[in-house]
Design goal:
Helix content is about 35%, strand content about 30%. The chain is α+β, with helices and mostly antiparallel strands.
Protein backbone atom coordinates (compact mmCIF):
# COMPACT_ATOMS: atom_id res chain seq x y z
CA UNK A 1 0.00 0.00 0.00
CA UNK A 2 1.29 3.43 -0.86
CA UNK A 3 0.14 6.78 0.37
CA UNK A 4 0.14 10.02 -1.54
CA UNK A 5 -1.45 13.43 -1.72
CA UNK A 6 -4.36 14.06 -4.05
CA UNK A 7 -5.84 17.27 -5.38
CA UNK A 8 -5.95 20.20 -2.94
CA UNK A 9 -3.50 18.43 -0.63
CA UNK A 10 -6.02 15.82 0.54
CA UNK A 11 -4.24 12.61 1.53
CA UNK A 12 -5.14 9.54 -0.50
CA UNK A 13 -4.41 5.83 -0.31
CA UNK A 14 -3.56 3.75 -3.29
CA UNK A 15 -4.01 0.02 -2.89
CA UNK A 16 -1.56 -1.83 -5.11
CA UNK A 17 -3.41 -5.15 -4.90
CA UNK A 18 -7.21 -4.89 -4.81
CA UNK A 19 -7.41 -8.58 -3.95
CA UNK A 20 -5.17 -8.34 -0.92
CA UNK A 21 -6.92 -10.17 1.88
CA UNK A 22 -6.46 -9.04 5.41
CA UNK A 23 -8.89 -8.54 8.26
CA UNK A 24 -8.56 -4.79 7.87
CA UNK A 25 -9.10 -4.97 4.09
CA UNK A 26 -12.17 -7.18 4.56
CA UNK A 27 -13.71 -4.76 7.04
CA UNK A 28 -12.76 -1.57 5.23
CA UNK A 29 -13.37 -2.60 1.62
CA UNK A 30 -15.45 -5.74 1.28
CA UNK A 31 -17.89 -5.44 4.18
CA UNK A 32 -19.50 -2.20 2.89
CA UNK A 33 -19.78 -3.78 -0.57
CA UNK A 34 -21.35 -6.91 0.90
CA UNK A 35 -23.81 -4.91 3.00
CA UNK A 36 -24.71 -2.81 -0.05
CA UNK A 37 -25.31 -5.91 -2.14
CA UNK A 38 -27.52 -7.44 0.54
CA UNK A 39 -29.54 -4.23 0.85
CA UNK A 40 -29.91 -3.93 -2.91
CA UNK A 41 -31.13 -7.52 -3.18
CA UNK A 42 -34.09 -6.85 -0.91
CA UNK A 43 -32.88 -9.06 1.94
CA UNK A 44 -32.76 -6.10 4.28
CA UNK A 45 -35.08 -5.91 7.26
CA UNK A 46 -37.25 -3.33 5.52
CA UNK A 47 -37.78 -5.30 2.30
CA UNK A 48 -40.92 -7.10 1.27
CA UNK A 49 -41.99 -10.58 2.20
CA UNK A 50 -44.46 -11.64 -0.50
CA UNK A 51 -45.55 -14.70 1.50
CA UNK A 52 -46.42 -12.58 4.53
CA UNK A 53 -48.24 -10.01 2.37
CA UNK A 54 -50.19 -12.83 0.69
CA UNK A 55 -51.20 -14.37 4.05
CA UNK A 56 -52.43 -10.99 5.29
CA UNK A 57 -54.31 -10.43 2.01
CA UNK A 58 -55.94 -13.84 2.25
CA UNK A 59 -56.91 -13.23 5.89
CA UNK A 60 -58.69 -10.05 4.80
CA UNK A 61 -60.34 -11.74 1.80
CA UNK A 62 -61.66 -14.61 3.92
CA UNK A 63 -63.03 -12.20 6.55
CA UNK A 64 -64.49 -9.72 4.06
CA UNK A 65 -65.54 -11.79 1.05
CA UNK A 66 -66.23 -15.27 2.45
CA UNK A 67 -67.53 -14.66 5.97
CA UNK A 68 -68.68 -11.03 5.49
CA UNK A 69 -67.24 -10.31 8.96
CA UNK A 70 -66.94 -6.52 8.80
CA UNK A 71 -65.35 -6.19 12.24
CA UNK A 72 -62.51 -8.57 11.35
CA UNK A 73 -62.08 -7.14 7.84
CA UNK A 74 -62.07 -3.53 9.05
CA UNK A 75 -59.40 -4.34 11.64
CA UNK A 76 -57.11 -5.57 8.83
CA UNK A 77 -57.21 -2.25 6.95
CA UNK A 78 -54.32 0.18 7.34
CA UNK A 79 -54.78 3.22 9.58
CA UNK A 80 -54.91 5.40 6.45
CA UNK A 81 -57.65 3.26 4.88
CA UNK A 82 -59.68 3.33 8.11
CA UNK A 83 -59.30 7.12 8.21
CA UNK A 84 -60.83 7.33 4.71
CA UNK A 85 -63.58 4.73 5.12
CA UNK A 86 -65.98 3.81 7.91
CA UNK A 87 -66.89 0.21 8.66
CA UNK A 88 -70.31 0.83 7.07
CA UNK A 89 -68.66 2.20 3.91
CA UNK A 90 -66.44 -0.88 3.74
CA UNK A 91 -69.57 -3.04 3.96
CA UNK A 92 -71.16 -1.11 1.10
CA UNK A 93 -68.02 -1.53 -1.04
CA UNK A 94 -67.91 -5.27 -0.38
CA UNK A 95 -71.61 -5.60 -1.24
CA UNK A 96 -71.12 -3.64 -4.49
CA UNK A 97 -68.18 -5.90 -5.40
CA UNK A 98 -70.41 -8.98 -5.07
CA UNK A 99 -73.80 -8.33 -6.72
CA UNK A 100 -74.50 -12.03 -7.39
CA UNK A 101 -72.77 -13.87 -4.54
CA UNK A 102 -69.56 -14.53 -2.67
CA UNK A 103 -66.65 -16.94 -3.18
CA UNK A 104 -66.49 -20.25 -1.37
CA UNK A 105 -62.70 -20.59 -1.50
CA UNK A 106 -59.97 -17.96 -1.97
CA UNK A 107 -56.24 -18.26 -2.58
CA UNK A 108 -53.46 -15.79 -3.37
CA UNK A 109 -51.93 -16.54 -6.77
CA UNK A 110 -49.54 -13.71 -7.65
CA UNK A 111 -47.89 -10.58 -6.28
CA UNK A 112 -46.36 -7.42 -7.63
CA UNK A 113 -44.00 -5.15 -5.68
CA UNK A 114 -44.82 -1.48 -6.14
CA UNK A 115 -41.67 0.53 -6.94
CA UNK A 116 -40.87 3.44 -4.65
CA UNK A 117 -43.63 2.43 -2.20
CA UNK A 118 -43.79 0.25 0.85
CA UNK A 119 -46.57 -1.77 -0.74
CA UNK A 120 -47.25 -4.99 -2.62
CA UNK A 121 -50.22 -5.84 -4.82
CA UNK A 122 -51.50 -9.33 -4.05
CA UNK A 123 -53.73 -11.01 -6.63
CA UNK A 124 -56.29 -13.48 -5.31
CA UNK A 125 -58.69 -15.89 -7.00
CA UNK A 126 -61.94 -17.13 -5.54
CA UNK A 127 -64.33 -19.86 -6.65
CA UNK A 128 -68.09 -19.55 -6.40
CA UNK A 129 -71.14 -21.19 -7.88
CA UNK A 130 -70.74 -20.54 -11.61
CA UNK A 131 -68.42 -17.60 -11.02
CA UNK A 132 -64.71 -16.92 -10.65
CA UNK A 133 -63.67 -14.02 -8.44
CA UNK A 134 -60.49 -12.04 -9.24
CA UNK A 135 -59.24 -9.57 -6.63
CA UNK A 136 -56.27 -7.26 -6.19
CA UNK A 137 -55.45 -6.10 -2.68
CA UNK A 138 -52.83 -3.39 -2.16
CA UNK A 139 -50.95 -4.42 0.96
CA UNK A 140 -49.14 -1.50 2.59
CA UNK A 141 -46.19 -2.35 4.85
CA UNK A 142 -42.98 -4.35 4.90
CA UNK A 143 -41.47 -7.45 6.46
CA UNK A 144 -40.80 -5.70 9.79
CA UNK A 145 -44.10 -3.82 10.29
CA UNK A 146 -46.31 -6.41 8.67
CA UNK A 147 -49.01 -5.66 6.11
CA UNK A 148 -52.43 -4.05 6.10
CA UNK A 149 -54.96 -3.58 3.32
CA UNK A 150 -54.65 -0.15 1.74
CA UNK A 151 -56.85 -0.80 -1.28
CA UNK A 152 -59.23 -3.47 -2.59
CA UNK A 153 -60.35 -4.09 -6.15
CA UNK A 154 -62.34 -6.73 -8.01
CA UNK A 155 -61.90 -7.56 -11.68
CA UNK A 156 -65.03 -8.89 -13.34
CA UNK A 157 -63.21 -10.49 -16.28
CA UNK A 158 -59.94 -11.80 -14.84
CA UNK A 159 -56.72 -9.91 -14.29
CA UNK A 160 -55.55 -7.43 -16.94
CA UNK A 161 -52.54 -8.44 -19.02
CA UNK A 162 -49.16 -6.92 -18.33
CA UNK A 163 -47.59 -5.65 -15.15
CA UNK A 164 -44.78 -7.23 -13.21
CA UNK A 165 -46.76 -9.97 -11.45
CA UNK A 166 -44.84 -12.91 -10.09
CA UNK A 167 -46.28 -16.26 -8.96
CA UNK A 168 -46.61 -16.97 -5.27
CA UNK A 169 -45.47 -20.26 -3.82
CA UNK A 170 -48.41 -22.52 -3.02
CA UNK A 171 -49.44 -22.41 0.65
CA UNK A 172 -47.89 -25.04 2.90
CA UNK A 173 -49.97 -27.74 4.49
Amino acid sequence: MTHGVGACGVPRRVVLSPLAVSERNLRARWLPLLVGAVLASGVSGCGHDPGSAARSARDFAVAAFQRQDLDAAYALLTDDARAQMSKEQLGAVILKMHPAGYPGAIHASEYEALPKREAVNVFLLGDGVGETFSYRLTMDGNRLRGYGVGGLYRYLEGFPAGGARLPLAPPEG
